[in-house]
Amino acid sequence: MHYDVIVIGGGNGGLSVGATLAKKGKKICLLERHNIPGGCGTSFRRGRFEFEVALHQLSSVGTEESPGPTRKIFEELGIMDQLDLFTLDSLYRVVLPGKVDVTMPTDVNEAIVYLSKKFPEYTEQIKDFYNLAFSLFKEANEIQNVSVDKISKEKFPIYFKYALKTAQEVLDEFFEDKNLQLCLNAYWSFMGTPPSIFPFIILAGNISVYMKFKPKYLKGGSQVISQALAEVIRNNNGEVKFNCGAKKIILENGKAVGVITEDEEKLTADVIVSNISPTATYFDLLEPKNVPKEAVKYLSNFKPSISALTCFIGLDCAPEDIGIKESMNVFYKSADVNEDFLKANIIEIEDDPIIFTCYTIDDPTVSPKGTSIITAGCIKYGKPWLELSPEKYYETKYQCANSIVDRIEVNYPGFREHIEEVSVATPLTHMRYLNTPEGCVYGYEQDLKSTGFFYPNKSMIEKLEFTGGFVGLCGFSPNYIQGYKKANEILANYWNGGI
After folding, report:
1. What is the DSSP letter of 220?
2. Across the strands, what pairs with 358?
3. What is the residue-wise DSSP string for 437-469?
4. Residue 449 CB partners (closer than 8 Å, separation 6+)
5. Cα(42)–Cα(467) distance, integer angstroms
6. What confidence score (pLDDT) does residue 453 get?
7. Which of 98, 190, 207, 330 is deepest in the core (most CB within 10 A)?
8. What are phi and psi of 455, to 5 degrees?
9. What is the mean pLDDT of residues 470-497?
10. SUPFAM superfamilies in the record, alphabetically (predicted)?
């Protein structure tokens, strides 16, 4: 069977590129090894609870009057009316017992007033910090549409000064108070790298898009988007093959021309798009003799990102019964985030920041009346988990889950006795379902050496393209946007100019 484009992997980026190309008239075949679309964009059921796997808040949506890029894409694809979205009242809550307990407003001016009352000696610095974040994000977007010969320090002074600085460097430039820094840098924990190596330009982007377009809650969870995008492909003369991964990419004269599926079916196409990592694409899907020599050296510089240890918990009580008031919470044990992050390299739960989300706060109908749905956990590297024996693995898994519950109990006394259902996902769980190295959930490490200018998004094989979190910014909306842009780039490069 011949297609215009074969897409390998049905994660957010793959679904977006496939749906966009299908909507614009191209015959698409999307291959997905799992039995449902979405990758991390999915949900699962345990008992009477349906748990969201990964989506906490959706960014870049905006409103009908002031639409963000994600809304514009969904409207163009015809799925916006299938999504029941509403705006959240806060960004997140940060807690350091006895020192910090702040709930950040979504409006930047309200945030400045709120933080200034708690840290009055830093009022001007808080204003300047937010101005910098918004200005850097603005310049970063503008520079993408400017030809290289017109990019200069004079035209983009903020970008030139801050594009290669870490979040920690910029926070230290503005604030000596580590407690205040905690209030402003919480997004590091959602990108998997500590402030000491986390690019400030990504933090600035997170702050800007969530405050400009406001965080959104999606009724039904991320599976609704994944299913809707898959249906766009199907409804536009395309195919989505589940339980059907790619086994090999076929090359002819050095060009990608097709795929052999895990079912040994041969499919051909004018263009192949990989939504899996470049590492897996080159080294698992190509014959060793066909792997570009430059790929071996180049990709050796990229390491898998961090994974996660997550407890999916169903409670037999309402959130207010045990004092849960905010949906998104980050619980710290100290203000030294960079030092605490080192614990991500060991299995045990010690001083790790705990990310705690109660979906029932945002949507009381997400679970049966009088119950609550919680996800709580921390980011952990997968390598130590790979070294466990099968017998030790299960024992360790539940010991760690117990430690997470202990940490939650400190903030919400009585939490443990209301647990009705719990499912635990370790880095090995992510590795099993996502098929990523060491169960990584953020592509390659989100540090200054692997992001921004340095994303490995240029293919070394003709007619092979990449999309997804390994070759661009991670996150739900960033991958929808990236997939959409990649689709239009493919149309321009292969069809408008001819193949």
Report:
1. T
2. 374
3. GGG-SSSB--STTTSGGG---S-SSBTEEE-ST
4. 301
5. 19
6. 73
7. 207
8. -55, 135
9. 94
10. FAD/NAD(P)-binding domain
User: Cα separation of 340 and 319, whole Å?
Assistant: 29
**Structure tokens that stand for 389 in this block:** 């024996």
What residues does 354 pair with on adjacent strands?
A: 331
62 three-state secondary structure: strand
pLDDT at 497: 58
Assign 196 a pLDDT band (cuts: 50, 70, 90).
very high
- Evaluated on CA atoms 429, 326, 191, 285, the torsion sign reads positive
| pLDDT at 498 exceeding the cut of 70 | no
Name the region of 248 (left: φ>0; alpha: ψ -120 to 50; beta: rest): beta
Q: What is the signed CA dihedral for 285, 291, 294, 300, rounded to 10 degrees? A: 50
Is 499's pLDDT higher than 60?
Answer: no
Phi/psi at 124 (5° precision): -70, -40
Q: How confident is the model at residue 151 (pLDDT cuts 50, 70, 90)?
A: confident
Q: Tell me, what's the pLDDT at 13?
A: 98
Scanning the structure block, which residue is given the tokens 């989506």?
A: 55
The tokens describing 142, both together, are 């503008």
End-to-end CA distance of the chain: 19
Angle (CA) 481-482-486 rounded to 5° is: 120
Two tokens, residue 421: 């259902």
